Every structure is written in structure tokens, then in C-alpha cells.
Amino acid sequence: MAVTIKNAYEIGMMRVACRLASEVLDFITPYVCAGISTGELDRLCHEYMIKKQKTIPAPLHYQPPGYPPYPKATCISVNDTICHGIPGEKVLKIGDSLNIDITVIKDGYYGDTSRMFIVGEGSILTKRLIQVTFECMWLGIAQVKKGAYVGDIGHAIQTYAEAQGYSVVREYCGHGIGKVFHEDPQILHYGRPNTGLKLQAGMIFTIEPMINAGKCDSRTMPDRWTVKTRDRSLSAQWEHTVLVTETGYEVLTVSANTQKPPDNH
Ligand code: MF3
Ligand code: CO
Ligand code: CO
């Protein structure tokens, strides 16, 4: 599949879809607390999307080759779950960390973003993994400009994550996005500088590093979606959808409560 270059109209449509995805995270934030189930968080997000936003939750019934249809509107990945956690009966407790990953479709265009949350006060280790993963995402974003290479993004992320004693999940990556949920190019979160695809203005893709406190190995659960760390170590992930511009990048998944980049950016 070829990499698509978005025109001005398509970029405008993507700005809207991506802002809406981010606004779902703003909406759900006050509900993330001890005692609520992940299924209830999903239900609230789903209702907000279809009733308030008139968006479609992209994960619902999404079925890539070799997968069963995804059963829920969001992915909620708690503690040692790396990604694609299926919301359900699990009740959040103080100290849990979780990723909520939202993808909406608005007028045929996809916006994809995720954030980390901690229930109550997290341990110093939990807070540090989440902060380092946030910095990894931003170090990747900072590489984005016309003429740079996809490998520059992965290299920046991998170098920092490993210097902090963490590991980068290899099996899942960022992706081109537009009128298709997952399209080329693949954005690996590890790699070598000056390798891979050369970035052109008008490309839109996600950067969504999954960083483990322990080893990088993962294991898929019998539901065939939920991915956990093999060694049960904590995992964290942040995701933005980013546009390549003539001078650098534009983060599209922004809304009122989007967290600012780290101080060194
Ligand atoms: N939102 C995820 C991503 O960042 C994809 C989830 S696929 C699903 O690419 F089916 F699990 F929702
Ligand atoms: Co994504
Ligand atoms: Co996502």
C-alpha cells in the first residue's frame, strides 16, 4: 500500500477528527477513579462519541486479518497490559495505571490518540515510567520534519527508553492514518537514524510508543486482542497523530486538556 500525501482539504478534515478524539479523553478524565470499571469508562466514551460528537468509534467491530472483531468502542489497557485491552468488568483501584486509546471517525476521517492515567497516587516507579514514555513520544515527534527519515523517530525513542533502563515493544507500531485506520507507513519505535522512508510534507501518521519497565516481550491473551508483558512488568503508552509540515510537524490530536510537551521541547 502506498503512503498517501494529504491535501489541504484532507488535512482540515483530519484536524477535526483528531481534535474530537482528543476531546473524548478530556471528557473521560474526571471519571477515571477507584471503583469504576473499565467497561463503564468505555460505555461513557461510546455514548459521548455517538450522542454528543456524532462520531463513530473506530475500534468497534474492527477486524484486521487474523483477528476476531474488536468488541468495544475503546481500548483500555491497565498495568501490565501493553495495548488493546478490552474494557469489561475490571474495577480500577488506587495505584493502577491505565492507557485509554480513542479512535473516532468523523465524516470518513480517523483521529487516533491515547493518554496514560493513574488512579489516585501512583508509585514513584509508575509515575516515572509514564513520564519517560511521554518524553519518548515527544522525542519521536521532535524528529518529524520534511526530509527526515522514519528511522530517526524510532532511534530517538529507543535510545532514550533504553538509557532509562526500559524496553521498547517491537510487535506494535505507529501507522499512517487518514480515510483508513491503519495505512502505510509503519512507524517503528526503534531503529537507526537516516534509514527507512523519507518524510514528505502532507504525510499524517501516529507516534505511539509502548514502553515496558521490564523486558520487551509480549503475550497475547486468549481473547486474541489483549496484549500483556510476558514478564508481568508495567507498560505505558502515549499516542498522538502528527502531520509532517514544510518546517516540522503539527500535532493534530489536540484539545483543551492536552498535556503540554515536556520542558525540554
Ligand atoms: N487505537 C489503536 C492504535 O493506536 C488501535 C486499536 S485497534 C482495536 O492503533 F481494534 F483494538 F481497537
Ligand atoms: Co494508532
Ligand atoms: Co490508538
TrEMBL record:
<comment type="function">
    <text>Removes the N-terminal methionine from nascent proteins. The N-terminal methionine is often cleaved when the second residue in the primary sequence is small and uncharged (Met-Ala-, Cys, Gly, Pro, Ser, Thr, or Val). Requires deformylation of the N(alpha)-formylated initiator methionine before it can be hydrolyzed.</text>
</comment>
<dbReference type="InterPro" id="IPR002467">
    <property type="entry name" value="Pept_M24A_MAP1"/>
</dbReference>
<keyword id="KW-0031">Aminopeptidase</keyword>
<feature type="binding site">
    <location>
        <position position="239"/>
    </location>
    <ligand>
        <name>a divalent metal cation 1</name>
    </ligand>
</feature>
<dbReference type="InterPro" id="IPR001714">
    <property type="entry name" value="Pept_M24_MAP"/>
</dbReference>
<feature type="binding site">
    <location>
        <position position="112"/>
    </location>
    <ligand>
        <name>a divalent metal cation 1</name>
    </ligand>
</feature>
<dbReference type="InterPro" id="IPR000994">
    <property type="entry name" value="Pept_M24"/>
</dbReference>
<feature type="binding site">
    <location>
        <position position="175"/>
    </location>
    <ligand>
        <name>a divalent metal cation 2</name>
    </ligand>
</feature>
<feature type="binding site">
    <location>
        <position position="101"/>
    </location>
    <ligand>
        <name>a divalent metal cation 1</name>
    </ligand>
</feature>
<dbReference type="Pfam" id="PF00557">
    <property type="entry name" value="Peptidase_M24"/>
</dbReference>
<comment type="subunit">
    <text>Monomer.</text>
</comment>
<feature type="domain" description="Peptidase M24">
    <location>
        <begin position="13"/>
        <end position="246"/>
    </location>
</feature>
<feature type="binding site">
    <location>
        <position position="208"/>
    </location>
    <ligand>
        <name>a divalent metal cation 2</name>
    </ligand>
</feature>
<comment type="similarity">
    <text>Belongs to the peptidase M24A family. Methionine aminopeptidase type 1 subfamily.</text>
</comment>
<keyword id="KW-0645">Protease</keyword>
<feature type="binding site">
    <location>
        <position position="182"/>
    </location>
    <ligand>
        <name>substrate</name>
    </ligand>
</feature>
<protein>
    <recommendedName>
        <fullName>Methionine aminopeptidase</fullName>
        <ecNumber>3.4.11.18</ecNumber>
    </recommendedName>
</protein>
<feature type="binding site">
    <location>
        <position position="112"/>
    </location>
    <ligand>
        <name>a divalent metal cation 2</name>
    </ligand>
</feature>
<feature type="binding site">
    <location>
        <position position="84"/>
    </location>
    <ligand>
        <name>substrate</name>
    </ligand>
</feature>
<feature type="binding site">
    <location>
        <position position="239"/>
    </location>
    <ligand>
        <name>a divalent metal cation 2</name>
    </ligand>
</feature>
<keyword id="KW-0378">Hydrolase</keyword>
<dbReference type="GO" id="GO:0004177">
    <property type="term" value="F:aminopeptidase activity"/>
</dbReference>
<dbReference type="InterPro" id="IPR036005">
    <property type="entry name" value="Creatinase/aminopeptidase-like"/>
</dbReference>
<keyword id="KW-0479">Metal-binding</keyword>
